[in-house]
Each structure stands twice: as C-alpha cells, then as structure tokens.
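Work Package 4 report. The design task specified in the project plan requires that, given a folded chain encoded as structure tokens, an amino acid be chosen for each position. We show below one input record used in the internal validation round.
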C-alpha cells in the first residue's frame, strides 16, 4: 500500500496540474492569484502634491519664522485637489494649498494651517507663519512607486491592498489564474439529496455532496457539474461521460471505491481513464483512488463522510490551490501538546481531528470525540489534524506531536 508521503508526492507532481490563465475585471479579482508581474506604468504619486492643508511657500525664505517672530507673506493663489493646475511660485510668495493638491513649481515647502493665521488687509490677503516651511510636506512624484518599478509579482494573492495598488496604477482588468473547474460525483443507491420528501427505509441524506461542494469552494475551486450515480456500472459510466464533457480539471467522487460488490467507481475509472493507485496507508481514508479521466485528475474518495472530508483536505485542497496558482499549497504544521492519551496503531498515518487552543504560547490539541469515519459530528470544531506517524504507537497525554493547522 502506498504511504501518505508517496501518494501526496505522486499527486502534487502530476503533469496535469496546470493553471488556466484568464482575464478578470479588478472588481472580481479578490482572492485570485496574479498570473503576471505588474510593472508600474505611471508614477505614484503622479505629481508632487501636498501632504497637508496649509501654505506652500516659494523659496527658502521662512527659516526664521517662529511663534514670537512670525513671518508675513502675500497669498497669491489657492490650489485645491482636482482644481486647475497652479502657477509657479516666486520666492516669498505663499499659496493656500489643500491635501493632495499639486505643489507649484518654485515651492520650498509647506507650513501647516495650524501654524498660520490669515490677515486681510486693504492691499490683499496675507498669511502669518509661526513655523518655517517644511519640504517634508511635499509628497514627491514616484515616491510610492516609480514608473518601471515592479509593483506586484506573479503569484501574489490579490487582497485588499493589492486591489488598491492595481486600481491606483489603472489596472482595471488583470490576468489571473482561473478557479479550478471541479466535477463532483456522489454515488450510492441509499443516498438522497436533502429535501422535504421523507426518506424510505434504508435511505440516508447526502452529506458528502453539500460538504464537498463547500470544501471545493473554500479551497478556491468552482463546481462545474455536480451529479449523482446509482450503484450500477451503467449509471457510473453515464456519470463519467457527463463529467468528461464538463471540461473539469479535477473530478471528485464519493463512495463506491471500496471492495464491495456494488463499488463501481474504480472499475469504470480503469475502463475509461487510468487508475494510478488505489488505497493509501492513512486513517481515515484508506480506500482512496487516484487516476485520470481524460485530462482531469480523478479522486475517488471513500463514502464515509469524515473519510471523504479528511482525504479532500489532505490531497485535493493542495491540488486545487496549485491549479489556482497559489504558492503556499500546504497547511502550516505546528507542534502541539496533547491534552489526553491518543491510541494509535502502527502501520498507517493517522490524522486525528482536533480542536486547538493556545495558552501562554503553547498549542494544545484535543480530539473532537470518537474518530469513527462515519461520525459527522467529529468534523465539528476541527481546527487541526494531529499527525500520528505510521512508525509510532500510542501517543500519551502531554506528549508533543505535529499538527496540520487548518487556518
Ligand atoms: P461506500 O464507500 O459507498 O461503501 O460508502 C461508505 C459509507 O458512506 C456508507 O455507509 C454510505 O452510506 C456512506 N455514504 C456514501 N456516500 C455518502 C454521502 N454522499 N453522504 C453521506 N454518507 C454517504
Ligand atoms: Mg456506496
């Protein structure tokens, strides 16, 4: 049986994991990954502008201005953001200026309005300065980013700051990696979608369909097609045909991959695509099938809900993130202290669903109850997967272990 490490390595190095590049309006680009470097084609700021509301002073003429010996200068113009372009300032002229307004040629610096007083006289309006003009109050053209500089590099995740910068640089459409298109197949004669109709004896509600759809979306994918197949070769074959036609990069099925007589997913995958491996030495999720269906990577997840969600987390989330162009595709690992004994048999790598609490710099992991792979309630409050190594036996309370941190 394949080890966890070998299975993950095989999957993540599959040649079919290729991002698709698309163009998006900036307003829809949050969370996507930039598919190209972004160079600045304009200066930021685009022109010298004022950092303050106050007065721009022509020439270095105010160095002696103090509160006790203020300097009085004539105001020759008013300059506001978005107004007409200013005239050059001659030495010993003042211009009333507002934040963001263009600084006129000849300006030495600014005095903040708080350090000034207006004086209306018959011969015009003057300003009395209690501080020398400060050149630091000029925001220089290109001081944020200059033309030709690299503003953002390929692979950056587009967040709030990136959107602001791209907008300022007038990138209103951008090249990004598209969300991976995923096909989702649930299987099982007993499975019925949630609805108002009552269940017949022996039927159960579809938990994996809704949960896997949410997991796909959370991982950055988009569900292109979601269908259900009965436990018959014809039904599974028909589902595979539809999934192949949907142009998916990844196809995920739930159920029907075990040794049961009515498990057809693996059989039909071998018939229509390739089966690279089946079964991985992990717990939960041993009966995991992996292969290809046309160009799509195919993951046959076990039907038990906790198994399917944990195997999704371990193997599919990293693939979806890689297709989406993300550089960090795996969860961070942290060392945790165990709050209770955790029984573990050697042979398989076990991923114990845990809550995580931090206290005085130590992270404590507590299992979310019994780890039966059918138990959906064990998926509630999961903040990490504690790694019980295949070569290690039981883990004791207070021991340290490694945890995949789901944050
Ligand atoms: P299977 O792998 O098809 O043998 O299924 C294993 C277990 O998972 C069985 O108890 C199924 O009833 C259950 N199961 C399969 N698919 C789903 C599903 N979509 N939602 C909830 N439980 C499921
Ligand atoms: Mg089944």
């Amino acid at each position: 049986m394949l080890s966890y490490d070998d299975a993950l390595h095989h999957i993540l190095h599959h040649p079919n994991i290729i991002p698709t590049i698309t163009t998006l309006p900036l307003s829809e680009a949050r969370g996507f990954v930039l598919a190209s470097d972004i160079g600045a084609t304009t200066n930021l700021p685009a022109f010298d502008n004022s950092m303050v509301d106050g007065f721009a002073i022509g020439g270095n003429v105010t160095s002696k201005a103090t509160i006790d010996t203020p300097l009085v200068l004539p105001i020759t113009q008013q300059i506001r953001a978005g107004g007409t372009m200013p005239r050059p300032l001659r030495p010993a002229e003042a211009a009333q200026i507002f934040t963001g307004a263009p600084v006129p040629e000849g300006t030495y610096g600014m005095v903040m309005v708080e350090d000034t007083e207006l004086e209306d006289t018959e011969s015009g309006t003057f300003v009395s300065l209690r501080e020398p003009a400060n050149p630091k109050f000029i925001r220089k053209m290109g001081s944020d980013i200059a033309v030709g500089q690299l503003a953002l590099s390929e692979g950056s995740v587009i967040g709030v700051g990136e959107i602001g910068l791209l907008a300022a640089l007038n990138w209103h459409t951008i090249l990004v990696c598209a969300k991976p298109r995923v096909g989702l197949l649930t299987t099982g004669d007993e499975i019925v979608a949630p609805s108002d109709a009552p269940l017949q004896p022996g039927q159960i509600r579809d938990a994996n369909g809704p949960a896997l759809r949410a997991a796909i979306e959370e991982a950055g994918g988009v569900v292109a097609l979601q269908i259900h197949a009965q436990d018959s070769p014809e039904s599974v074959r028909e589902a595979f045909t539809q999934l192949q036609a949907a142009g998916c990069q990844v196809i995920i099925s739930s159920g029907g991959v075990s040794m049961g007589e009515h498990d057809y997913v693996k059989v039909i995958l071998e018939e229509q695509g390739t089966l690279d491996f089946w079964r991985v030495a992990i717990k939960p999720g041993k009966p995991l099938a992996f292969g290809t269906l046309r160009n799509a990577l195919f993951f046959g997840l076990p039907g038990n809900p906790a198994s399917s969600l944990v195997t999704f987390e371990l193997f599919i989330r990293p693939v979806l993130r890689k297709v989406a162009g993300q550089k960090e595709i795996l969860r961070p690992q942290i060392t945790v202290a165990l709050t209770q004994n955790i029984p573990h048999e050697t042979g398989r790598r076990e991923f114990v669903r845990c809550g995580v609490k931090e206290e005085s710099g130590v992270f404590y992991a507590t299992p979310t109850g019994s780890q039966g792979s059918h138990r959906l309630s064990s998926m509630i409050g999961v903040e990490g997967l504690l790694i019980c190594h295949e070569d290690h036996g039981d883990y004791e309370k207070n021991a340290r272990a490694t945890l995949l941190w789901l944050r």
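The pocket of magnesium ion (ligand 2) is lined by residues 187-188, 231, 255-256, 303 (CB under 6 Å). Validation will be extended to a larger panel in the next phase.
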